[in-house]
Amino acid sequence: MAPLNIPPERSEAQSYTSMSVGDVEAIGAHCQMAFCHQLDFLPFRCESCKGKFCLDHRTESAHNCSNAGAWARARRQDSIGTYRPTQKPSLLNHEQQCSSPVCKTLVNTALTPGVHCSNCNRQYCLKHRMQEDHDCSNLKPLGARPSQGSTQKEKGLAALGKLKAWSLAKKNNFPKAPVLKKPSAAATSRATQLAELNKLKSTARGDDKVPVEKRVYLYVEASADTTTAKFPTGKFFYSRDWSIGRVLDAAAKALQVENVNNRGDDEAVRLRVFHVEQGRLLDFGEKVGEVLQSGNTIVLLRGVGPPIPDLIG
C-alpha cells in the first residue's frame, strides 16, 4: 500500500493565516466583523470562511465563523487520508449556552436551536430570543469597538475654538482708529464711529415701550452653519434691564429662527448667544446692560453647549 502523503506539521496549529506584506490585496483590508470594520494593514485570513479579520477577531469563535470547523476537517483529512464527519453536539462535548445570565440552557444543539441577536451579537435560547427578554438595550455588542465620536465637552471645545477664531477675524474687519500723532485724525475716526452708531440707532427695530435712555443697539446675526434663518441678520435694540435669555427669544422671533429652548434640555438643539467682541457665550441670566454696549454684535448659535468656564477660557 502506498504511503500516505502527510504534509509537515506547522509549529503551531491555527485556523487563521497571518497575511504577508507581499500580498498586495491584503494591505489595507477592513475587518469583516459586522461590529468592527477596523482597517488593518496586515489582516488575518480565516482558513475556514476565507474572510479577512483584525487581530481581535481572527479566530473562528471571535467572528462567529459561517463555516466553522472547515479548516479542522480539512486538516484531519490531509493527515489521515479520509474525511470523518464530526459528531453532533451533545451535552458532553457542547459548551455553548444561552447568553442570558439567568439561563443555563445549552443552545445550537440538535434539540435546542440558538437564536442570534443582531443587536448585541449574542446567542440565546428560544425563551430569551426577544430583545426585551435579555435586556438587550443595556448590553454592549460583542466585538464592538469604543465609539470614535467626541464627547459633549470635546464638541463644545472645538465649536468655541472656531467661534473665537471667527470673532477675532470679524473684529479685525471693524474700523479702527489709526495710531497717529495728529489729533485731527483721531477725531475723524471717532466721528466715523459716531456716524455708524447713529446710523444703527436710526435703522434698528425693537419694542417701542423700551425708554430711549435704556436702549442698547446691537447687530444680530444667525450663524448659517448652525441655524436655518429666513432673515439671518438684523439691527435691533433691547432694554439694558433685559436678560440675555429674553434677548435670545426676541432675536430668534425677529430673524425667524426656530427656538426650542423651552421644550427640553437637549443642548444639541438649544440656541445660545455668542458675543463677538468678548469672544464668549453669554449666560441666559446675564443682564444686557452689564455685558453689552451699543454697536456690539451677537450671534445666535445652535448646539454649542452651555458657557462653561473651562471651555471658554
From TrEMBL:
GO CC annotation: cytoplasm
Pfam family, one: zf-AN1
Keywords per UniProt: Metal-binding, Zinc, Zinc-finger
SUPFAM superfamilies for the chain: AN1-like Zinc finger
PROSITE patterns: ZF_AN1
Domain AN1-type intervals: 25-73
GO function terms (MF aspect): zinc ion binding
Domain of life, source organism: Eukaryota
Stored InterPro entries: AN1-like_Znf (IPR035896), UBL_ZFAND1-like (IPR057358), Znf_AN1 (IPR000058)
Residues making up the signal peptide according to the UniProt record: none
Name used for this protein in its record: AN1-type domain-containing protein
